[in-house]
Design a protein that fits this description.
The structure is a homodimer of 170-residue chains.
Chain A: H1 18-47, H2 53-65, E1 68-69, H3 70-77, H4 81-93, E2 97-101, E3 109-113, H5 115-124, H6 127-135, H7 139-165
Antiparallel strand pairs in A: 1-3, 2-3
Chain A binds a DNA duplex (30 and 30 nucleotides) through residues 36, 39-40, 43, 52-55, 69-71, 79-87, 90, 105-109.
Chain lengths: 170, 170
DNA sequence: GAGCTTTTGGTTGTGCACAATTTAATTGTG
DNA sequence: CACAATTAAATTGTGCACAACCAAAAGCTC
């Protein structure tokens, strides 16, 4: 591969080269740190709105798409019911959404914005600008980073599918 | 800015332009998704070792630096005792580390690798290579992404500090 | 229509992140 | 020495992520 050989040590055990573990840590670690740092900024900015960051994501989808069943909400956000069910109950408890069984399909639960939930959008409008300011990067750079992350996510998801069902061959 | 104006609607309220919320969602959302996708790959690769991803990070630090007090472990990983204490107890329960009060400073708890914990390193050596393969990117691209994320994290952390103590002025 | 599979949500349990509080040991100051 | 302030961990409580499992409702097939 195109991995540059370690210029320093290790003639003896190439596989035990500590650099492998260090390099790796920095990749995954950097992403983890960035994710949590982002979370920290959102935590501060959303405190006034009474929302957590995942709750904000749910509200964004509802503001953009209107009422949705839980299933579709989960598809937009890549979250399953184990995460969404309690989250939506808290949003309902806060008076921002209603959850009501569909009449046509009793299995489906439709999530609808209340008046209060719709009104909250006004106060959320300035959040993106403040986030952009916090990143200290211009929109073009942010866009490039986003594309790169999306490609990475696609590759990682594909790798997981391959790892899980590839070797076992079902 | 380079944000393309919405071709469709909204002449009335510029501040209510839905694009702001959409664009924003994609930045934070992409990072969140990438972080969780990475977590998914690690989950699969680390299952054999009996480690979760944060536990793996702790082990990486210990393999690299040797025994450390909880405080320093937390500084390396940006994690506090609320996260580390139960995590370390689980690692101790798995027989990978020991936790012992320092003799010189009874407040401090020193985390030490057991023989089993040290031995586990051998089996972890192949993880980075498999992660790199899963990303589908060459090391140079990964390195660039890492630098970008680190810069982003720095800017976000600075923004949080400013938001929290700047306005209030202590 | 009886019986099977699929779909949709919910529940439970484990583990992590983080804020807030608590305890014990140490340090600093009079 | 007494006493306040600081420090290191632990604990508690809330919320999210995800796996595993369950239940009810549709949809199918014969």
């Amino acid at each position: 591969m195109s991995v540059s050989p370690t210029p320093s040590a290790g003639p003896a055990t190439d596989a035990a080269d500590p650099d492998w573990l260090r390099l790796d840590r920095q990749i995954c670690f950097s992403l983890n740190a960035a994710s949590r740092a982002f979370n920290g900024v959102y935590r501060v900015l959303l405190k006034d709105l009474g929302l957590t960051y995942p709750q904000y994501l749910v509200m964004l989808v509802l503001w953009e798409r209107g009422a949705l069943p839980v299933k579709q909400l989960g598809e937009h956000l890549r979250l399953d019911s184990g995460t969404l069910s309690p989250l939506l109950k808290r949003l309902e408890g806060a008076g921002l959404v209603r959850r009501e069984r569909s009449a046509s399909d009793e299995r489906s639960v439709r999530v609808t914005l209340t008046g209060e939930g719709t009104a909250l959008r006004e106060r959320a409008l300035e959040v993106p600008r403040r986030i952009a300011a916090a990143t200290g990067a211009d929109p073009a750079e942010i866009g490039e980073l986003r594309d790169r992350l999306d490609r990475l996510t696609g590759a990682l998801d594909a790798a997981v599918r391959e790892l899980e069902q590839g070797p076992a061959a079902r």
